């Protein structure tokens, strides 16, 4: 079928173009998009070598309505509202063990193709990358895998639900699952974008004793306070490491920046047996230098995490419940943009004028 998609090319703004979308295969559905969040991961795929062959249609926080079912699909029905999270095969040992973020099928992530190497999307008769994170949702329509698809009640606002697919899920699950934060913990969160602010809201739900937000934008730090941070540090004006040591250090830390120097600061702010989780997307080739003595003799831990180790079908319904209870004020993060204004949305995100831009789709 004919549809419109925002096509990404290296070093260029997104461009809305007429594309062709094939019918869904087994294990897939066709979704008419209502909304899709923009994430730094999308920009990293466009602007850096992440294995995504360009031109490509990106987008991995899609919410929409099912319009067609692939052969044998019975788990979902026509007309249902769904949220599309990251892709996974559902069959490998990692998927079977409840760790779909570490699925062995790399094709379903940055490579943006099916496991067999094909794509459901064509541009001017030529196949292009069109299965990014098993969806490619910067488009009016997408053929998506059902493996990490979550059913939504029709009354839930699509624009607010979209960030649950990745950004908000990553921040909240990093605190609750990867870091296993507890009420007695003090936690430092580096970077107050969507992921960091979601982490702050999660830490408040957990009841962490101290919730310390670190950023360089005063407006973000004020928002962090309003969402649950007990302390804020503007690291452009004071040394974050010194400030954290003055607070006695922390038992948990989360890096959302992907900057090596920030990761090292976070690590050295840990108390003995403290844990640091890194979820920020770094530039290819980025490295950190850690004093092995500080690692060994203090019993500290440092690790990475994909999506906070969440299983979308388990964790997303929990976030929806917190939203309905008023404990997850997603409207404080989201700014909506018409699909045609995708490049303005990107500019506003990069300039910190909006936290989480969400595109509102239209077929015209």
Describe the structure in your own words:
- The protein is of the alpha/beta class.
- It folds into two domains: 2-165 and 333-360, Quinone Oxidoreductase, Chain A, domain 1 (Alpha-Beta Complex), CATH 3.90.180.10; 168-307, Rossmann fold, CATH 3.40.50.
- Helices cover 26% and strands 26% of the residues.
- It contains eleven helices and 18 strands.
- Strands 3, 5, 6, 9, 10, 17 and 18 form a seven-stranded mixed sheet that branches.
- α4 packs across α5.
- The protein is globular and about 60 Å long.
- The mean pLDDT is 96.
In short:
This protein has 364 residues and is an alpha/beta fold.
Strand content: 25-35%
Q: What is the CA-atom radius of gyration, in angstroms?
A: 20 Å
- Spatial separation of the terminal alpha carbons: 14 Å
Q: Biggest β-sheet: count, sense, barrel? A: 7 strands, mixed
CATH superfamily of the largest domain: Medium-chain alcohol dehydrogenases, catalytic domain
Relevant terms:
alpha/beta, 7-stranded mixed sheet, 6-stranded parallel sheet, 364 residues, 11 helices, 2 domains, single chain, 26% helix, Quinone Oxidoreductase, Chain A, domain 1
């Amino acid at each position: 079928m004919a549809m419109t998609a925002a096509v990404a090319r290296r070093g260029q703004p997104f461009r809305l173009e007429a594309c062709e979308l094939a019918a869904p295969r087994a294990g897939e559905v066709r979704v008419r998009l209502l909304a899709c969040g923009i994430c730094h991961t999308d920009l990293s795929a466009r602007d850096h070598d992440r294995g995504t062959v360009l031109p490509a249609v990106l987008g991995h926080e899609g919410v929409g309505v099912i319009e067609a079912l692939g052969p044998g699909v019975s788990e979902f029905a026509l007309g249902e509202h769904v949220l599309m999270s990251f892709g996974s095969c559902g069959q490998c040992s990692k998927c079977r063990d409840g760790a779909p973020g570490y699925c062995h099928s790399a094709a379903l992530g940055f490579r943006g193709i099916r496991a067999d190497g094909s794509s459901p999307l064509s541009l001017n008769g030529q196949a292009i990358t069109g299965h990014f994170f098993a969806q490619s949702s910067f488009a009016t329509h997408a053929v998506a895998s059902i493996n990490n698809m979550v059913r939504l009640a029709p009354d839930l606002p699509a624009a607010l639900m979209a960030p649950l697919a990745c950004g908000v899920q990553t921040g909240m699950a990093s605190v609750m699952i990867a870091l296993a934060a507890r009420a007695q913990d003090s936690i430092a969160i580096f970077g107050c974008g969507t992921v960091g602010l979601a982490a702050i809201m999660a830490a408040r739900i957990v009841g962490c004793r101290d919730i310390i937000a670190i950023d360089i934008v005063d407006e973000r730090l004020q928002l962090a306070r309003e969402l649950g941070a007990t302390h804020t540090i503007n690291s452009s004006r004071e040394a974050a490491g010194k400030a954290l040591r003055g607070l006695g250090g922390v038992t948990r830390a989360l890096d959302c920046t992907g900057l090596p120097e920030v990761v090292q600061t976070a690590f050295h702010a840990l108390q003995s047996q403290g844990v640091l989780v890194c979820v920020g997307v770094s530039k290819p080739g980025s490295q950190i230098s850690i004093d092995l003595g500080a690692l060994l003799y203090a019993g500290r831990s440092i690790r990475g995490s994909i999506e906070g180790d969440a299983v979308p079908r388990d964790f997303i319904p929990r976030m929806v419940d917190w939203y309905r209870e008023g404990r997850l004020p997603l409207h404080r993060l989201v700014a909506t943009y018409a699909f045609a204004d995708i490049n303005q949305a990107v500019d506003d995100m990069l300039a910190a004028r909006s936290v989480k831009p969400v595109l509102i789709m239209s077929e015209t």
